[in-house]
């Protein structure tokens, strides 16, 4: 009898202590996650000191006239590629720039397409790009990332800003890859003259990073301490979680009314998508290719508050809303332009999710959250965040 009492007491003590132990472990993981982000922030500043610009998102080289993935990275390389030599990954950087991986396989300089798993650097999980709180690991993903650059508070034309592999602005009304329908739909709502779309694209890209475009610290007129440079991104573990999956084939109206993206969540289990909702999977899932600069893999928007839904109008080439998310309780980390790391709660003031995104120079309709994502809209931020 006494033995049973002792066992019962031990069981109660274990039950009481286990949550505390788990909480302590998560606190340690969260601290490590924050420290990784600080190192990335330092790397961005060192990169800027060396080259007088931010690491470019969606850049690289272009082998024209070939559809061979081993010879064409399609100008899709992420901002993280340029960061590697500044986070003590010089060996990986040299493999990429020389086009020769650790196994001696030869590719073009700057590597093949970022979805080409035969190139060893693309398949590596680089610890500096991973948050320890995120359990996602291994195939079918390639090398994952939990840190994504901020493209601002307008989700439209997020892959535009320079030239793609056919010498045209992405989505500028030509038949150039990756498509025509998206810009045709958008242009009908904004201008009858498709020739004006490139200028409209420039007005839509309001973040500290602008894909296929050079940005510098001097462009951040709102102040580096008031502008988000990057945010966390939870990766998929195959459970249709809102924070870690991309809802596929969302209607184009989500680009004009972001709440429609959030409305794709399962009303009975709001932290998940319903079983009927298709999501991007395999090595097209969220954060599944650290070297790919498209927003599905390594970029975020400050439209919906942290840990809300993410959705694409198509696949990984589609337009859509990429929401900052994490495995931490109640929020996610962001990296500010000055290198500070802050934890933003899910309840941050985020304005009107039914509002249409705005153009260059206008105040963000997404409240404090949207304002933190813009580089030069001159919003006055007088709140703690």
Automatic annotation (TrEMBL):
Q: What is the lineage of its organism?
A: Bacteria, Pseudomonadati, Planctomycetota, Planctomycetia, Pirellulales
> Native species of this protein?
Rhodopirellula sallentina SM41
Judging by the UniProt lineage, the source's domain of life is Bacteria
Q: Which residues form a coiled coil?
A: none
> Which part of the chain is the DUF1559 domain?
22-350
One Pfam match: SBP_bac_10
Name used for this protein in its record: Secreted protein containing DUF1559
